[in-house]
Fold this sequence. Notes:
The protein has one helix at residues 53-65, and strands at 10-14, 20-24, 30-34, 43-51, 94-98, 103-106, 112-122, 128-130, 143-145, 158-160.
Amino acid sequence: MAFPALIPSARSYTPGDVPQQQQATLSGMNNAYRQGNRRINQSLTLSYNNISEAQLNEIKAHYLSVNGSFEVFYLSSEVWNGYTTPPVPLVSDYAWRYAEPPTITDGSCDLWSVEISLTTYAVNFGDLIIDAGAAASLPAREYILDAGAAAATPARDYVTNPGAAA
């Protein structure tokens, strides 16, 4: 299930950092060792204020469809509404997962407020196919977006818009 196409009322993005190890030497000098080239611990908090019950149900349904914080997903373009270039591209080597369950606050006049906390999950881009069309079944990929008529075997872990690859 795709992330709900709702424009958030507010966004809070933290760009994270590259993985590194800081070490102080016996002489008091500091050394840093970079342990990777992709940022880790990126986070995004989305606030949706005064939304309808139908919109609230979309958010809850998405959370349940990805099994809470277990499965990864990509964000809809509406999440980055207002950005010419989003800080994290919609489809990249970073997927998202829920950092914690959504916080739902009852409002007045049948309106609700929801706060969602997300964190990035690094995806090996070699395991990702975008717009597979009639892609051959080998090599096996874990992630397929817009599978089209791609072969259903071997089984994939994450398929968005499965087409014939279901």
